[in-house]
Design brief:
The chain is α+β, with helices and mostly antiparallel strands. It is about 30% helix and about 20% strand. The chain has 5 helices and 8 strands.
């Protein structure tokens, strides 16, 4: 009769791995093997707008645990919520990403990119070098005031829905319906495609 193999419990030279460490490793493995889809909106109306948008996309791609999968066309729009002509026009785009970062960490990364491009938050609806907004994260629905998901106004803004439709025509906005249907309802007035400009998908 063969001797059963020695296991870790009967081998005095093997230290048991704490259950908390095992749980962390298991969780990390699940996370890494299951990246989540997220959709981000980018906007800029100060400085070299196209260069800033591309810089933000490149910075996202350089983020560990994040890959940029699709980039929309560039659209030019009037600023939202302010007197017409009081600010420069915006360049807007949407990027589709896959990430292992949780929503809170993705938010922190977006804010860090804004700060890197000297984003100033001294007035509501004020001009900005770059705006990085999380539109949706998988199918998560959350009313956390720090990060409401999906973005609370994404479903009613043409400058978000038009480029979102570019990168994900079949997209659903959790709790609001299909991007296609929302866009048909909102219309595309004021969202001008800039066919002369292009954002590169990071290599």
């Amino acid at each position: 009769m063969s001797t059963p193999p020695m296991n870790a419990q009967s081998d005095p030279t093997v230290q048991p791995v704490p259950a908390s460490v095992v749980a962390q490793v298991d969780a990390a493995d699940v996370t890494l093997s299951n990246p989540r889809r997220a959709v981000l909106a980018l906007g800029s109306n100060l400085g070299n707008r196209l260069e800033t948008l591309q810089g933000a996309i490149d910075a996202l791609e350089d983020t560990p645990g994040l890959r940029v999968k699709a980039v929309s066309a560039v659209y030019e729009t009037e600023p939202w919520g302010v007197e017409p002509g009081s600010q420069p026009t915006y360049f807007n785009a949407v990027v589709l990403i896959k990430t292992t970062l949780p929503p809170g960490s993705l938010l922190e990364r977006g804010q860090a990119i804004e700060e890197a491009f000297d984003r100033v938050r001294d007035e509501h609806w004020g001009p900005r070098t770059i705006d990085v907004d999380i539109l949706a994260y998988a199918d998560v629905v959350s009313d956390d005031p720090q990060l409401t998901l999906p973005h609370p106004r994404a479903h009613e803004r043409a400058f978000v829905l038009v480029p979102w439709h570019d990168v994900e025509p079949e997209a659903q906005v959790p709790g609001h319906g299909a991007v296609t249907a929302l866009l048909a309802e909102v219309g595309q007035d004021g969202v001008a495609a800039r066919a002369d400009l292009e954002l590169r998908l990071p290599e």
